[in-house]
Each structure stands twice: as structure tokens, then as C-alpha cells.
Amino acid sequence: MKFSFSSEQEEFRSNLRRFLADRSPTKEVRRLMETEAGWERDAWRKLNAELGLTAVRIPEAYGGQGFGFGELGIVLEEMGRALLCAPFFSTAVLATGAILNAGTEAEKQALLPGIAAGDTVAWVEDPAHWDAAATALTATPSGQGKKNGRYKLDGFKSYVLDGHTADLIVVLARAPGSTGADGLSFFTVPGNAPGLSRHALQTMDATRKLARLDFKGVEATLLGQAGAAAGPFESTMTEAAICLANETVGVAERLREDALAYAKMRVQFGRSIASFQSMKHKQADMLIDVELAKSAAYYAAAALDDGDDDVAAIASLAKAASSEAGLQTAIHAIQIHGGIGFTWDNDTHLWFKRAKSSEVLLGDAHRHRELMMQRWAA
Amino acid sequence: MSEFTEDSVRAEVRAWLEANWSSELGLVEWRNKLADSGWGVPTWPQQWYGRDLPQALQPVVDEEFSRIGAIGVAKAGIRTLAAATILAHGTDLHKEKFLRRILTGEDTWCQLFSEPGSGSDVAGAVTRAEMRGNKWVVNGQKVWTTSAHHAHWGLLLARTDWDKTKHKGLSYFIIDMHQPGVKVQPLKQMNGHASFNQVFITDAEVQPEFLVANVGDGWAVTTTTLMHERRGADGLRTWAMGSDRKGRAYDEERAEIATTMEPYKWYPQRAGRVDLILQRARETGHLADPVVRQEIAKLLILSKTGEWTARRARAAQALGRPQGPEGSLGKLVSSHVARAAARVHTQLSGADALLSGPASTLGGTIAEILVSVPATSIAGGTDEIQRNIISERVLKMPKEPSVDTDKPYRDVPRNTVG
After folding, report:
1. Chain B contact for A283 (CB, 8 A cutoff)
2. A277 and B301 in contact by Cβ < 8 A?
């Protein structure tokens, strides 16, 4: 259903919300964001064992729960609301998507059960670019590589989500001399492979860790068909845009609710500031921004589950709508808090920064509006 | 009401329609059959032309009507608001006298709430009703009255007690529009149309039995009417479509729609005509302009997400879930869409936006969009009032301190416009 959730989905959401509120209070968010890794394996494994979150959209045949993007969207929205510090987007959205979209049956059997169990963390292509054609990392067949699927990778990737802590790395690279969408293949590389150096980047949003990875003759295993990764990459990015839109509406709703609660509590000029029409109208506008973005995010997740032919345009629509709504809500939320909202100790900036980083990740609103227009008004 | 099932209702209405519907019946004759059978308004009480059918089964009845092509009861215009108000607050005499002729379409109604001095602040009405002898005598001026020029009856809000506070001094009446004390004048709008009227009321008379509820209850009754107006706003905004089939009943329905919908003929333009945007961008060669493309994309996203939000609200309603915030946003979103659409239409038209009339772009449609859109954020509750409603009712934010509700209304500062 594109316009309502089932009772089971609503129940799943409310359980998850309670659980994450308990496990990811702001104190915990602040503690983890100060670490270089940004998350802790034991806590993450425990959370996954209890709720099976990385398994949500992995088919049952590969050890998953076999749910769709409707459910995955709920997970992401709730994680955005709680600002959970965990390698979920990199693992359960990007890497899982690439393996499902590109991998052979044997590769799915080999890789997905580990992810479903919460043990394996992985990432995919530089998510700042969105565009497979821009890939520069080269993959050269090594020795008798064409027979056994071994390659050597040279070059670098940046803005890689959880790249410095991933156990397994899913990476897009191109055959030497190839251009555009040709010659692109997915590869897997262990996080500790010789020749791979990984550096955490200092990020504006400390709850979302990024890394630069330099490859010098790194041994890699082909994932899927050689030279045929462009299509699976595009599908994975479509899924990722929709998942990020769902996460962002969770971020935006949290910002909106916190700002509303603060306005109701704060007294100036002898009355609650929530009684001033300027505040009320701002809050009404924020509600519209958030609800419209939610409609886009939910519709897009359902479009993926329904196999809608138009899903790529809808994904871009949802990404653009959520980017704008997330940031606008964050700006209003800081403003409503006034001076206290600009302090480090107030929590608003944590969600503001997530909204800001999600605005840019996977391409900003301008880029996605253009992509949408290319599909709807070619 | 557990005796109703989808299958039983479908079988029953289908059998009744097959036995009774004919396109050669007169429209009023047919609708009298609908009133007698209860199938015209099946969710109404059995005692008053309905069948006490649960709301959830109404679509089943609608499907059967459309399957056989049967015409329904008269639905367009203010008459549905009159019916809802009378059902909620009217006496048996009101129901007896008015409901059937509302359903048959024989009577047309209008709503006499707004005044020159009270627009957003409807409860500030100063039209006065005084008991003289055994009749109410009404004096004052009303405005924005759709269909007043052909209405038989009006829903009138008037002040009956100036010593009571603002909301307590109001009463609600049903007034006969065809009497010498009621003068109706068309009100010309900035887009050249005259969809509304001004109504001048001078010593007009109302029978005592046409008071609705009690003296002093006028605001509570008005709230009921306005609630139904808001709920039905989406329906009113969509263009009523007559059938193009042949037959006496269809002919009469087409004539009825033409009359009822005449004031609304510019409403599609008022909403911004997003449907024309891509075609216009192609025709004008603007589709290659990256700046225009961004503006078009913003508009399409706003329009689509607004539509999906409305569908979320309807889906929740159909599932019988409590209405979430998404149900209160439609009016304000449609203002945003209309404004954005007018901006893009202007961008696409360039210098052609300087012209108007039949010789201008699309026979004047584009010009009409540009000068009709300002109505969207005013009519039926301004954007500012919508934001107040959303913040107070949905977000539970406190009202602004009030300065006009705790003293006799005669002491409250008012507009001097007569």
C-alpha cells in the first residue's frame, strides 16, 4: 500500500521506536560520535541479534527476514529519529543492495547470511557521486585472473560510509581504458587487505562516519558479471535514495517535535512563546514540509516493493523532497530554540547536522530534480 | 449495524436499481424514488430518507450506481451543507420541510455568514435579528454568497443579543430568500467573473419556527456547517461532470450542473493548472532551460506530494483510523501549489503574460490563472487562519490571548463598514 501502513507495520514501528529510544539516548549518541569508529561492535551485534535489523530486506533464502522496502523504510525512519550510531546504511542498504542486484546465486549464498546475522559490515561505491560513469578506480586482471576472478585495484575512493571500519568492502571499479558505463564491475575486498590504506575523515556530521580508501594493487574478487555493474549500481542507488529519504523524514520529524515541545515550554514576555502567531505559523509550515516529505518517502518505498516502472524518477522526487524538508525543518528548529539552539550542549545541532549531511549525500535536491525531469520531461 | 455486509448491500442496491432506474424518468421523479427508498443517501438515518448504512459501505452503493449509470441525489452547492446542518441541529419540522427538496434538487440554498466587517472572524457578525411581534426581523449585509441570486433558502447567522459575549449572542436561522427585504447584487472579482453576491437584508422576516437550535446557539450550529464545508472542500473544488448519455434524466441533470457549477467555472484556473505545465514548457521551448526545469520540478514535487498526502488522509479514513495531521493540510498545500504554478506559468509565458482575453495564450486560460490564483489563499479560510487551525488543533499550541470574547459584544471595537 502506498498510502497507509498495515497494523503489523505500525506495531513494528512502535516497538522499534521504543527500543531505539532506550538503546540510543542522546547521551549514547554523543559518546559514540566522539569515537573514531562511530559505533561499537558488541552493542551493534546485540541490537542486531535482538531485532534482526540488517536482515529485514534480505530474502529468507539467504538467512534474512524477507521483508520489503516498506519495512526497511520504517527501520531507517526510526533510526533517523533516534540518530542511531551504527553502520546500518552502509551495510543493509548499500552493500546488501549491490550484492542482491549484482551478485550471482553463489555469491549471495556466500555473503548475505553473514550480513543478515549482523557480523559483516560493508560499503559500496563512493556515495557522494551517484554517478557510475565518474568511477576512476581501476581493476586489472591479476595473473590468470580471468580464470579465477581475481583482480588488482588501484586508485582511491572517498566519502565512503563506514569505510574505515568495514569488514568487507564492496567496490565499483572499471577495466583499464574503459569509459562511461562500460567496463564497470563490482568487487569485494576484505577490510584488512594488503595494499589498502583507510583514513577516517573529519565529518561535519559526527554521527555519520566517512573515510578515504587508497588502493595500491589490492587483490579483489569479482562480484557478479564482469563489465556489467552499471545497471545493478543504478538500481542500488535508486534504493539508497529512497532509503535515505525515509531516514531523513525521521530526522525531520524529530526536529519538528523537539522544537514544538521547546516552544510550548519556553516563556517570554509573560506567555508561552507557542502562543505567538509567528511561532504557530512556523510550526504549521514545518508540519507541512515534514508530512509532504513523508508522503514522498512512503510512496517511493512502496513503488520499489511494487516494481513500479517509474521508480527511478520517484526515488529522485523523494530524495529532493526529503533533502529540502530535512534542512528547512532543521533551520526552523534551531531558530525556534533561539540562543540555546546554537550551543553544543543543546541536542538540536546533532539532528541539524544529520539533515545537512543527508541533503548532500547521494546528490542534492537540485541534482535529483534534474534527474526527475530527465525521466518525466525528456 | 452488523447486519450489513458488502455482499448483501451490493445485492440489494443492485436489485433495487435494476427494478427502478430508468433514464427516461424526470430528474425530480427519480430522486423522489431515491428519497423514498433510502438509496439516495444510505448513510442517513432510516427515518430521514436513508438506511443507516455504515460510511464504509457507501463506496459499494456508489459503484452500483455508476455500474448501471443511475443518477444520484442532488449534491452540488450549499444544499449539502444545509442538509448536514439540519440533520444535526434541525427540528422534525425542518427535516420534513427541507430535506426531501434538497435531495431532489428542487431547492437551492446559500450561506449567509460572512459580512463586509467580518471575514476570517465570522463570529464577529453584526447583522441583527430582533423579535418583533411574532416574527424575527433581520437587518444587515452579507457578502461572498455563492448562488444567492437563485437560492430559495439561506443559512443565516445573525446577532440576537448585544449584551452577551461575542459567541453567545448569535443565533442561526433559515431565511426565505424570495422576499422583498432581501436584495442580491453580484460582486465582481479581480478576474472579471462574478461568482459571488452581496446580500442586503432590510426588515426581512423569518418565521419563529425557522430558528435552528436555540437563541444563542448560533455559533455551535455555524461550526457544524463550516466543518462540513471544510470536509467537502476537495469535492467542491473538483469539476462536477455530467454524463454524456442520452435520456431525459441525463438531460435534466446536465442543465442542473450547468446552473450549479456556473460560478465555479474559473476554479480550475484558481488552482494553478499544474496539468498544463509540461505541455506549455514544450510548446514554449523552455524545457531545455535548466532554471525553468528546476522550477517545474519543484512545482511537480509539491503537487505530487500534496496529492499523496491527501490520499494518505483518505486511506486512514477508509481504514477507520483516527485522522493524523496529514488530514488538515490540504487547503494550505493547495495554496502553495497554486502560487508556485502561477509563477512557473509566468516564466513559461514571458511577454505573453502581459495579455489577457480570448486572443491571449490558450484562449485566455493562462491570463485567467495569473489573476485567479490569489483567491486560493483567501477563500474558504485564509492561509493564516489555516495555520492557526493547524497549530491549535493538530499541534495543540495555545491560542493568542483574546481581547474580544469576555465582554458584551456591544463594547467590542468593530469595523465601521456598514
Report:
1. yes
2. no
Same domain, A365 and A339: yes
Measured in angstroms, the CA of B376 and the nearest CA of chain A are apart by 17
Of B281, B293, B309, Cβ closest to residue A370: B293
Q: Which of residues 335-394 of B touch A (CB under 8 A)?
A: 336, 384, 386-388, 390-392, 394
Contact yes or no for B301 and A369 at CB 8 A? yes
User: Is residue B213 helix, strand or coil?
Assistant: coil
C-alpha B382/C-alpha B358 separation (Å) is 31
Cell matching residue B397: 499550541
Please name the residue of chain A whose CA is at the shortest distance from the CA of residue B305: A292
Taking CA atoms, what residue in A is nearest to B297? A369
Position B406 in a domain = no
The H or E element containing residue B140 is strand B135-143
Q: How many residues does chain B have?
A: 418
Residues A183, A218: one domain?
yes
Q: Are residues A106 and A40 in the same domain?
A: yes
Q: Say if residue A144's pLDDT is above 70.
A: no
The range of the structural domain enclosing residue A147 comes to 132-227
Residue B231 touches partner A, C-beta closer than 8 Å:
no
Model confidence pLDDT, tens digit, residues B328-357: 799 999 999 999 999 999 999 999 999 999
Note down the domain range covering B61.
6-91
Residue indicated by cell numbers 511537480: B300
Smallest CA–CA distance, residue A50 to chain B, in Å, is 30
In CATH, what number is assigned to the domain containing residue A313?
1.20.140.10
Label residue A134 by pLDDT band (50, 70, 90): confident
- Predicted confidence at residue B237, as pLDDT, reads 39
Whether B249 is covered by a domain: the verdict is: no
Contact residues, chain A, for B286 at CB < 8 Å: none
pLDDT over 90, % of chain A: 88
Is residue A126 very low, low, confident or very high in pLDDT (cuts 50, 70, 90)?
low
- As a whole number of angstroms, the distance between CA B134 and CA B138 comes to 13
Whether the CB-CB separation of B281 and B347 falls below 8 Å is answered with no
Report yes or no: A10 at the B interface, CB cutoff 8 Å: no
- Residue A6, min C-alpha distance to chain B (Å): 10
pLDDT classification of B264: cutoffs 50, 70, 90: confident
Which of A373, A375, A376 is the best substitution to test chain B (most B C-beta atoms within 10 A)? A373
CB of A253 closer than 8 Å to CB of A78: no
More reliable by pLDDT, A377 or B335: B335
AA identity, residue A258: D
Please state the rounded mean pLDDT for residues B127-142: 97
With a cut of 80, say whether residue B108 has pLDDT above it.
yes
ipTM: 0.95
Instruction: Check pLDDT > 80 for residue B298.
Output: yes
Q: How far apart are CA A316 and CA A131, in angstroms?
A: 13
Work out how many domains chain A is built from and give that number: 3
Q: What is the mean pLDDT of chain A?
A: 94
- Gyration radius (Cα) of chain A, Å: 21
Q: What pLDDT sits at residue B418?
A: 46
Residue B1 has pLDDT above 50, yes or no: no
Bridging pattern class, strands B153-159 and B109-112: parallel
CB within 8 Å: B304 and A296: yes
Please name the residue that has the C-alpha cell 441525489. Answer: B73
Residue B404 Cα, gap to closest chain A Cα (Å): 17
Cβ of residue B309 closer than 8 Å to a chain A Cβ: yes
Does any CB of chain A come closer than 8 Å to the CB of residue B296? yes
The answer to whether residues B231 and B351 belong to one domain is no
**Chain A, chain B: beta-carbon pairs less than 8 Å apart:** 122
**Contacts of residue B332 in chain A, CB cutoff 8 Å?**
284, 288
Domain boundary, last residue among A116, A145, A169: A116
Cα–Cα nearest to B380, from B248, B192, B227, B179:
B227
- A200 and A155 fall within a common domain: yes
Amino acid at B351: A
What pLDDT does residue B3 have?
74
